[in-house]
Design brief:
Elements: H1 30-37, E1 45-46, E2 54-57, E3 62-66, E4 68-73, H2 84-95, E5 100-102, E6 113-114, H3 129-138, E7 143-148, H4 154-163, H5 175-187, E8 190-200, E9 212-221, E10 229-236
Parallel strand pairs: 4-9, 5-6, 5-7, 7-8
Antiparallel strand pairs: 1-2, 2-3, 8-10, 9-10
Helix pairs in contact: 3-5
The structure holds S-adenosylmethionine.
S-adenosylmethionine binds near residues 104 and 164.
Length: about 240
């Protein structure tokens, strides 16, 4: 990998007073963009926390990319991608992808490689998500897009296992444990600049821990006391 080091940021840490709060249009930092295109490493890209709508390079506070944030309303469904705005978002990223995987696909076969624990679903494979991803890695498959739409809670996990005829105890139904082992296995099948789409009740996604930065968040409000479906797109770049 070619790494072109831009001069490090020498200003005070987290001094957001220097950030261009009222950037009227997107003004990309040419060097930073070129560096990205060459797959050079950013020292620390800054997520768009203080100023929604933009991603900034911490070294010079130049805007390098637009961060997409949206909130929409739609009826809920257990088939996540049949919720219109969610399906549109997934399709938007799938169209730009060459090889994709979906370890929790249920009956959805949009990705190149689909899997679901439940043998009654239409997915290509019926394995535990982690085993499926390790199998793809062993076969040398590299995906530029991955879709993570696991059960959202311990209760949903236990319902899924029951429906799949798999006996499970307390350990198997911990969603944090499931997400953690699947995310670790996923890294092994991704290209260097892969995008991961995560769906659930939190916006953690793959996170900085796995070398990802967020590029889009969409909240899908379902009204009443329903939890939102939180849709996160992240790019592998750190
Ligand atoms: C939220 S649903 C996916 C919905 C799908 N994205 C859609 O739009 O229809 C989660 C799926 O994960 C499957 N699942 C649960 N635990 C799993 C595991 N450990 N490995 C693989 N699949 C699992 C369930 O059977 C369920 O179909």
């Amino acid at each position: 990998m070619t790494t072109t080091e831009l001069p490090p940021w020498e200003g005070p840490k987290d001094d957001w007073s220097k950030a261009p709060l009222t950037t009227p249009t997107w003004t990309p930092h040419v060097e930073a963009l070129e560096e990205r295109e060459r797959r050079g490493k950013y020292q620390r890209p800054v997520p768009a926390v203080p100023i929604p709508g933009r991603l900034f390079d911490k070294r010079d506070y130049r805007c390098v990319e637009e961060f997409k944030f949206s909130r929409v309303w739609s009826m809920p469904s257990a088939d996540t991608f049949s919720v219109p705005p969610v399906g549109v978002m997934v399709m938007r990223y799938l169209r730009a992808s060459k090889v994709s995987c979906d370890p929790f696909a249920r009956n959805n076969r949009w990705a190149t490689h689909s899997n679901d624990l439940n043998p009654a679903t239409k997915a290509d494979h019926h394995m535990d998500a982690e085993d499926f991803l390790r199998m793809l890695a062993d076969q040398g498959v590299r995906c530029d897009l991955a879709i993570l739409d696991p059960p959202y809670s311990p209760r949903q996990i236990s319902e899924c296992y029951k429906a799949a005829g798999v006996t499970c105890g307390m350990r198997e139904t911990q969603n944090a444990a499931l997400y953690s082992r699947v995310k670790s296995a996923l890294v092994g099948v991704l290209t260097e600049d892969a995008i991961v789409l995560s769906f659930g009740w939190n916006s953690s996604g793959m996170g900085i821990k796995h070398g990802f930065e967020q590029i889009e968040i969409m909240l899908v409000c379902h009204g009443g006391a329903h939890n939102d479906t939180i849709c996160v797109a992240e790019r592998r770049s750190l």
